[in-house]
Amino acid sequence: MAEELVLYTNPQSRGRIVRWMLEEIGQPYTTEIIDYQSAMKGPAYLAVNPMGKVPALRHGDAVVTETAAICAYLADAFPQAKLAPPPGHRLRAPYYRWLFFTAGPVEAAISNKALGFVVPPERERMMGYGTFALAMNTLEAAVSRGDYLVGDSFTAADVYVGSAIGFGMMFGTLEKRPAFEKYWQRISARPAMARANALDDADAAKMKKTAP
Length: 212
Known about the structure:
Blueprint: E1 5-9, H1 15-25, E2 30-33, H2 43-46, E3 56-59, E4 62-65, H3 67-77, H4 92-114, H5 132-143, H6 156-171, H7 178-187, H8 191-210
Parallel strand pairs: 1-2
Antiparallel strand pairs: 1-3, 3-4
Helix pairs in contact: 1-3, 1-8, 3-6, 4-5, 4-6, 6-7
């Protein structure tokens, strides 16, 4: 019997990215909606993720947190979905590169910009992303090389990077460059994403109805 997959999420969170990834792998899973008001900082959920943040994934007795890590884990745990190059393959290089470039430098650059922080020129070497412009130009070049980030195939890197670009443009934290828009339009047209969005939207509607 396959080990149970449980997604701890909230429809107003990065859990939407993991839901999309789960729909891509095509394995059965259950969802536990964690509300921000009480459950997220409650003892039951803190036992899953001491950070008190979503998403988190439980696979049997294994727990994974951090959205990029969850996507990478699922791709390896279910290789039949072909959402990652095989271990040892040379295409693992761009796969890891862009997945973790976005989780690290890009995320930090966007967060700092949203907070109004500008790196002083003499401190750029201290920052993993250097400057916001450098991080964005590098990301733009990555999504401009082809249809996907890794060779000719859609992978978990596209789920994560594509979501960062899509959400960034939606919330105004990332500039709507033509390369970003074309990449996001292409990636977001996948049926698995449509299914994931429908499920998350339905959960959001239920939460709204039951809110005090």
